[in-house]
Amino acid sequence: MTTYDARFRVWRGDAEGGDLRDFTVEVHDGEVVLDIVHRLQATQAPDLAVRWNCKAGKCGSCSAEINGRPRLMCMTRMSVFDRTETVTITPLRAFPVVRDLVTDVSFNYEKARSVPAFVPPAGLAPGEYRMQQVDVERSQEFRKCIECFLCQDTCHVVRDHEENKPAFAGPRFLMRVAELDMHPLDAAEETGLDRKRTAQEEHGLGYCNITKCCTEVCPEGIKITDNALIPLKERAVDRKYDPLVWLGTRIRRRSASDPR
Ligand code: SF4
Ligand code: SF4
Ligand code: FES
User: Where is the 2Fe-2S ferredoxin-type domain (predicted)?
Assistant: First the structure.
């Protein structure tokens, strides 16, 4: 086994402020950045705060920024860096710091709660649902999400614009709206819930200018922009400019204002 000493710069601090600290840590063959953070805790910085669980790219907890790029620490091999390079590890920039590499991601849980759940079709019990395989596969791609929030962190709409957060759900949750809107069995419309309208008016779909940065950082390889956000935009526009929908809205408005 070969080992070498690598230089790391790690952000240390809390909500009040902090700075980058330099460390030299031993690296072994085959290790990932999370191994190094653990060795740093074990040998030099026992109070370094870091969140992780599975070390297998499945729990979504070890998200951080490595050399400025949002990544999972457990899925980033040390071999991708030059041995002479200083590897800088900082907390996710779009969310408030709790301590060191741990951020408060509750913004994402609030947005998750703002998306109404699947509405089961009337008259069918679970087990009686039937879908085309193509529809199953579309949902399954989105269901691979591990909620690491790297896409949420990287999206420029909120990354440097805290003021946009109330109006923008972010790629992960717009993808959830898209998944439900494209679900052939979702009966939301029958209950008066127009997911296309809520995507625009409540979840800020219009803020997304399809830069695809979210797709680039997704560790599950989900094509967030191409398969969820762009189709959702197309569906929302189709709905807005559909002449039958337009006529229906006018008639509904007129009957609401005419008491006869
Ligand atoms: S494609 Fe849209 S949601 Fe994704 S990073 Fe760009 S602006 Fe944000
Ligand atoms: S869509 Fe991808 S990047 Fe976004 S939270 Fe899910 S797994 Fe993470
Ligand atoms: S520790 Fe679970 S995804 Fe990295």
Answer: 6-93
By residue range, what is the domain housing residue 61?
3-103
205 domain residue, yes or no? yes
- Probe ligand 2: pick from 109, 141, 222, max atoms within 8 Å of CB? 222
Q: Looking at the domain assignment, is residue 258 inside a domain? A: no
Which alpha helices (DSSP H) does the chain contain, by range?
Answer: 33-43, 106-113, 133-143, 150-154, 156-159, 171-181, 195-201, 213-217, 230-241, 243-257
The reply to whether 155 and 96 lie within a common domain is no
Any domain includes 260:
no
Pocket lining: 214 vs ligand 1, CB cutoff 6 Å: yes
Is residue 52 located within the same domain as residue 176?
no
Closest ligand 3 atom to residue 62 Cα is 4
Please tell me the distance between residue 173's alpha carbon and the centre of ligand 2 in angstroms. 10
Nearest-10 crossing angle of helices 230-241, 171-181: 60
User: Is 248's pLDDT higher than 80?
Assistant: no
